[in-house]
């Protein structure tokens, strides 16, 4: 089974990501707020990606959840270790932030290999999917 985006853990991860990126980082910049975004994002993103996949292809099964976790881990590792990948990811993020540009909303992505410590959180959805 696939965990739902409406699971309390994923809702908490989304709320944490939004709160941290748009409020806490501005008032308390540092290592903790930097890592908090990574932890929340890696918890939430594989399930979000899998939900999009299930909407596009109704037959997406357990294998596709594993593929979404793998894609998330690979993408995150590239963005955090390869400056060109970081620039590319910031360009994508800028497209989504453009409607909010006048409201002071801006999230930056930083190349930081120490963020790779958060990678195990990408597998939380596999554990929750197994429990369902």
Count of individual helical segments:
5
How much of the sequence lies in strands comes to: under 5%
- SSE string: HHHHH
Distance between the termini: 6 Å
Let me know the largest β-sheet: none
The value of Rg in angstroms is: 15 Å
Give the % helix. 55-70%
Query: What is the residue-mean pLDDT, rounded to a whole number?
Result: 86
The number of E-state strands comes to: 0
| Structural class category | mainly alpha
Overall geometry: globular
Regions with pLDDT < 50 over 5+ consecutive residues? none
Report what the structure shows:
The chain has 5 helices and no strands. With 132 residues, the chain is mainly alpha-helical. The longest helix is centred in the first third of the chain and has 26 residues, at 31-56. The mean pLDDT is 86.
What is the topological layout?
Elements: H1 8-27, H2 31-56, H3 62-81, H4 83-97, H5 124-131
Helix pairs in contact: 1-2, 2-3, 3-4
Keyphrases for this structure?
single chain, 0% strand, 5 helices, 132 residues, mainly alpha
Q: Could you give a quick summary of the protein structure above?
A:
The protein has helices at 8-27, 31-56, 62-81, 83-97, 124-131.
């Amino acid at each position: 089974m696939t965990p739902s985006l409406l699971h309390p853990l994923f809702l908490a991860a989304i709320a944490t990501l939004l709160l941290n990126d748009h409020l806490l980082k501005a008032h308390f910049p540092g290592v903790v707020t930097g890592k908090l975004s990574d932890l929340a994002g890696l918890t939430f993103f594989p399930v979000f990606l899998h939900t999009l996949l299930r909407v596009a292809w109704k037959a997406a099964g357990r294998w596709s959840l594993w593929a979404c976790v793998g894609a998330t881990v690979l993408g995150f590792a590239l963005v955090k270790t390869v400056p060109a990948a970081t620039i590319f990811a910031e360009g994508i993020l800028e497209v989504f932030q453009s409607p909010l540009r006048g409201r002071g909303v801006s999230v930056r992505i930083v190349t930081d290999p120490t963020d790779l410590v958060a990678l195990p959180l990408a597998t939380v959805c596999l554990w929750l999917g197994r429990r369902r």
